[in-house]
Amino acid sequence: MFIDKNDYPALGFKFKVTSNSSFISGLLFGFDPDESYFQSVSGIGANLSTMPVINAGLNNIQYQLPNGTKYTDLDLSRGLMKSNSPMSKWVMKSLTSDLVNSVSSIKTRTINVFLLEKNSNNEDEIVMSWTFFDCYPKGFEIGSFNSNKSEIAIESLKITYSHFSQNTGF
């Protein structure tokens, strides 16, 4: 009996995150994706919101009609780097700019998350990927510092996006 490697669950312990400027400018002018390594990625999810509608005259019947998809925020966490990566610079500029309340000051990006595994040649191979569109930073946080413990300082980035696509079968 032959078992396809796609029949096994994907392991989620090795991944890569890349970003680029907005998708349109990337297509028109080409982009130089900056690559960032993160300790954890969470928030890949979508929920269909519904709106209740009560049938006129039949008070014991209620329909749930689709009302649009809502996406969770993407949370990226990693050890605090001594030098800022291009992604960290983008987040800080977006959140701390004097024009932060101006929509024109927010530069969106497309963010890609790649789930990787080693192939037979011991090279990283993409198992699955997600592309997040129209991303912009929603939050930035640096974890607590404690001089009594020898722990890595963690920075967390919260990114919001308009929608995402999942890519499989590489």
TrEMBL record:
It holds the Pfam family Phage_T4_gp19. One of its GO terms (molecular function) is structural molecule activity. It comes from the Bacteria. PANTHER family: CONSERVED HYPOTHETICAL PHAGE TAIL PROTEIN. This is Phage tail protein. It comes from Psychroflexus salis.
